[in-house]
């Protein structure tokens, strides 16, 4: 069992890691992890550089919280995913450069590289736009992901989910990498997209990848 303090430290580490990797800046972005019957989520309006484990906010799925700090304004998006996706234990949201550029152009990332499939499908889709912090946005994200592990958010950024904080951050990093590849190919005529058969083969190899 991972302790509450370890989870709090993990949220802070992920927020700082996003800044260090150039995935985020300032007070943008937020991170959450499943905890008891709710979640621990980064607080509203505190930049990663100043964030401490004590400022991470215990929050229920209905938005009620304890402590002196308010949860991220995007708590509805996090709670909707954690409450309805039993395969998800952590959520990472950021405004990384290339993913956000494509999101503002509302361009989904096609299956141009085998690692695009890390999100659970050939294409990395774009969720329809809704105002940040609203239930409409939370519903849009949940519907667009539809069992996948990441997507772009129209005119906003990107979101990634997984079984742990470390894995969710890894998905977010890969989405940004694939967004950069796609952005680059658009400058030289566009990508050559892989096939459905390629996707099947990638799925097989993913299952065998790494240590048993």
Element layout with pairings:
Layout: H1 4-20, E1 30-35, E2 38-41, E3 57-59, H2 75-84, E4 90-94, H3 97-105, E5 126-127, H4 135-145, E6 150-153, E7 157-162, H5 165-186, H6 196-208
Parallel strand pairs: 5-6
Antiparallel strand pairs: 1-2, 1-4, 2-3, 4-7, 6-7
Helix pairs in contact: 2-4, 3-5
Q: Give the CATH topology.
A: L-fuculose-1-phosphate Aldolase
What is the helix/strand order? HEEEHEHEHEEHH
Largest sheet entry? 7 strands, mixed
Number of strands: 7
As a whole number of angstroms, the C-alpha radius of gyration is 17 Å
Structural class comes to alpha+beta
**Could you name the CATH homologous superfamily?**
Class II aldolase/adducin N-terminal domain
Q: For the largest beta sheet, what order do the strands appear in spatially?
A: 3-2-1-4-7-6-5
- Determine the number of helices (DSSP H or I, runs of at least 4 residues): 6
What proportion of the residues form beta strands (DSSP E)?
A: 5-15%
Which CATH architecture?
3-Layer(aba) Sandwich
Query: Which residues sit in consecutive blocks of at least 5 with pLDDT less than 50?
Result: none
What number is the mean pLDDT?
Answer: 96
Overall helicity: 25-40%
How would you sum up the global shape? globular
CATH class type: Alpha Beta
Ends distance: 22 Å
Whole-number tally of structural domains? 1
Task: Write a concise synopsis of the structure shown.
By secondary structure, the chain is α+β, with helices and mostly antiparallel strands. It has helices at residues 4-20, 75-84, 97-105, 135-145, 165-186, 196-208; strands at 30-35, 38-41, 57-59, 90-94, 126-127, 150-153, 157-162. Strands 3-2-1-4-7-6-5 form a seven-stranded mixed sheet, sandwiched between helices.
């Amino acid at each position: 069992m991972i302790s509450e303090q370890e989870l709090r430290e993990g949220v802070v580490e992920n927020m700082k890691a996003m800044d260090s990797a150039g995935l985020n800046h300032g007070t943008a972005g937020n991170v959450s992890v499943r905890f008891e019957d709710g979640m621990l989520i980064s607080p509203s309006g505190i930049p990663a550089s100043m964030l401490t484990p004590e400022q991470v906010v215990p929050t229920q799925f209905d938005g009620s919280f304890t402590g002196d700090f308010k949860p991220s304004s995007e708590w509805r998006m996090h709670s909707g995913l954690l409450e309805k996706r039993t395969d998800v234990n952590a959520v990472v949201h950021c405004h990384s450069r290339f993913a956000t550029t494509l999101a503002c152009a509302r361009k989904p990332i096609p299956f141009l590289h085998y690692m695009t499939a890390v999100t659970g499908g050939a294409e990395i889709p774009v969720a329809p736009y809704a105002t940040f912090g609203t239930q409409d946005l939370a519903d849009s994200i949940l519907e667009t992901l539809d069992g996948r592990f990441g997507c772009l958010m129209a005119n906003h950024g990107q979101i990634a989910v997984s079984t742990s904080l470390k894995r969710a951050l890894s998905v977010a990093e890969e989405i940004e990498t694939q967004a950069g590849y796609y952005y680059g190919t658009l400058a030289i005529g566009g990508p050559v997209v892989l096939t459905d058969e390629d996707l099947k083969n990638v799925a097989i190899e993913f299952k065998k990848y790494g240590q048993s």
